[in-house]
Amino acid sequence: MLLPLCLAGWLMPAIAASNPIIRDKFTADPAPLVVGDTLYLYVGHDEAQRDEMFNMREWLVYSTTDMQTWTPHAPIMNVKDFKWAKQDAWASQAIQKNGKFYFYAAVEHDDTHPGKAIAVAVADRPTGPFVDARGSALITNQMTPKGTHSWEDIDPTVFTDDDGVSWIAWGNRQCYLAKLAPNMIELDGPIREITPPHFEEGPWLHKRGDLYYLTYASLDRSTQRDEHISYSTAPSITGPWTYRGELTGAGKYSFTIHPGIAEFKNQWYLFLHNATLAIGDLNGAIGRRAVTVEHLQYNADGSMRPVTQTEAGVTATVAASPVPARFERFSYAGTSQEQVRPAAGQYQNPVLSGYYPDPSVTRVGDDYYLVNSTFSHFPGLPVFHSKDLVNWTQIGNAIDRPGQLNFDGLEISAGVFAPDISYHDGTFYIVNTCVGCKGNFVITASNPAGPWSDPVWFDFEGIDPSIFWNDDGKAYIVNNGAPNETPRYDGHRAIWVQEFDYRAMKLVGPRTQLINGGVDISSKPIWIEGPHLFKKDGYYYLSAAEGGTGDGHSQVVFRSQSVFGPFVAGPHNPILSQRTLDPTRKNPVTSAGHAKLVQTQNGDWWATFLATRPYQQGYYNIGRETFLLPVSWQDGWPLILPSGQAIPFAANKPALPAQPRSPRPVNGDLSYVDEFDGAKLSMEWLGLRTPNQTIYTLKQGTLELHSGAALGDQGGVPAFVGRRQQHHVATVSTTLTFTPQQAQDRAGLVAVQNDKAYLFFGLASIDGKAVVALITRENTGTEKVVASAPVGAGAVTLTIRANGGAMSFDYQAGNGAALRLRSDYDVRFLSTHAAGGFVGTLIGPYSYQPR
Length: 851
Known about the structure:
Elements: E1 26-35, E2 38-46, E3 56-64, E4 71-72, E5 77-78, E6 85-87, E7 92-97, E8 100-109, E9 116-123, E10 131-132, E11 157-160, E12 166-170, E13 176-179, E14 192-193, E15 199-208, E16 211-218, E17 228-234, E18 242-248, E19 260-264, E20 267-274, E21 290-296, E22 325-335, E23 346-348, E24 360-364, E25 367-371, E26 377-378, E27 380-386, E28 393-399, E29 415-416, E30 420-424, E31 427-435, E32 439-445, E33 456-457, E34 463-469, E35 475-481, E36 494-501, E37 506-516, E38 529-536, E39 539-546, E40 554-560, E41 568-569, E42 576-577, E43 590-599, E44 605-612, E45 625-634, E46 637-639, E47 650-652, E48 670-674, E49 687-688, E50 696-699, E51 702-705, E52 719-720, E53 723-724, E54 729-737, E55 746-754, E56 757-766, E57 769-778, E58 784-790, E59 796-803, E60 806-813, E61 819-826, H1 832-835, E62 842-848
Antiparallel strand pairs: 1-2, 2-3, 3-4, 3-5, 6-8, 7-8, 8-9, 9-10, 11-12, 12-13, 13-14, 15-16, 16-17, 17-18, 19-20, 20-21, 22-48, 22-51, 22-54, 23-47, 24-25, 25-27, 26-49, 27-28, 29-31, 30-31, 31-32, 32-33, 34-35, 35-36, 36-37, 38-39, 39-40, 40-41, 40-42, 43-44, 44-45, 45-46, 50-51, 52-62, ...
């Protein structure tokens, strides 16, 4: 039995934690606020009698320090405290800002502004007293004319982002969002609509890591009678919002349900209401509800786990969070299999070793910039700088924010294909195709190191766009697309051009087909792609790749006296290819093509292009690489390499000012050590797909990986960060501290080509015992344990030694002797020949701890 109200201080007895958590009154619309070690819960007071629908006149607040007992406080406000309001103390939320507490609530406005409105009050303490902060409504029904009903403007939620900017969302049937002014009592910008699927009312905004959440009462009117809870997520508070599904079902006996979410003392909680409470002779009903709370947990990809509403609530125990895997230092040492040593005045090919395909280069003054494709790896599109075309230093990643592109659910060889970088009038441009994520786009930057803008999307079919800046001030985009006829054969494509209004960032005018099929359509050339236009001596030259990106790859050229053609094929085509050479030759370079030409400040011409270095006929694990060769001109036509000549590993440098080797070299024999002692990982590290939350933490010289999706799960983002395997002869090592606690726990080094081709070498639990294991998935649907050995507790150093198509695996526990788990294991399943796709192998730390 509850004790009488204690008038002194308005304190009342504590209330138990099992659901409903508040039992002295009917309450609804819970809104938690954490202040220090106390959680305050703001609720509306349901006072409906018998068959009344809603009767709400005041707002209440309760507090807890342990989520087990709840202390009531005096009512913080009555609807009549807002002199311009006439009734209905509906859903509210309080927030702390600028040393004050601001309280936002839905009320019924008087007849001067008919309909529901949003009020704002302010107090010095979370328990009040609160007073009207404006003397008028913050939002009225007349400010959102889309809705046809008078209760459209209800249920405010307020959120302050990491940059200190506060936002308010609200609505019924439509969900609205607006920025709040720094004083918190005015809007600071337009009202925008962000209505997610099945939105009914009761939005709640929160953020976890880099991901924004919009949780709300939903109602699929075609199948549901009562409200459920659904949610969407976004990389930015302004969207784009992605629907993630239902979080929980209807509240028992209640038509309405209303979410409130908070993190308190390292645990997340979801507050709701149902109608299960009975007080005296009054049972729960639509206007007599009861607040409940449940544990809230997240999956590795940032999605929230479905919540089951229970009577036990948070008195039930939840599984302890796993202890993260900790990695100390990561070392890499690689040597080129061809072992060519350039002479004085020469450079070494490739100029970018390993997985750096589809190079695009541009010159600005005496500076050169280059960008490569990265598909569904993140961050994406590495940007390099050079003064001599030979020594390159990575200066950024053009795709470095989750909000720019969404790779969710994509295969590793989808995502961003061949990019093109160019410069015009103080702005850098990258045009690109995101396969599987909205198509062709452009991003811009004033500094090539970044930040780069969010994408502006184009509406044209095809891949591999590039920009041509004509000398008449106009710009054009040229790209690969379907031919203007029924394709005659598999791989039949065309090259198209259209004017690009770079000021309006859109394509204008007609699209014109320039090339149908390739140099000679009667020979059925395949995959004409990667086109680039440039102008020289009055001619427009169109250079493109032909033959597909395998051994038949080549580069061809055409020219015309008009940007719209007709284009005539050059007499020396292909101007670059290795397809006619003996495939059994020693240390071959194959698959050459996808070139872009650049003129130096001295008037010389050079070409960057991709090619591969197999360790065995047709097999290479490290991906397509960036090469450099001079371009000669013969009778007005460019030639990169005469037919039948092999691409040299060493060649004379460009006639440009000599530059020292980059402090972070990307070609030749090289080694490095990452001590994990920075604030974040360096820009060379990559992950699989766009992370929706932080998957790692750097702490005092260690890399901690938080559990993500399982490797091989195309629908998720694994807790994996990797570096490119840049040499077929390489040694990779790290030291790991990790204790597997259950069957699927594992942490260690991973070498990965895609979701079906990878190997894991590290600590795992097999048959209930901690072991060091080699586990592979070799382009199949399942994994297999290749080898394992028992290992004790403590740090273990893991070393992978690659030699062409084989790898050996060594481990050392503590200060013990180094032991070999497996020698010369065949890893040709990591080759492009076996795995397919367009990427190279990444090697790096990985952790998986399903909970």
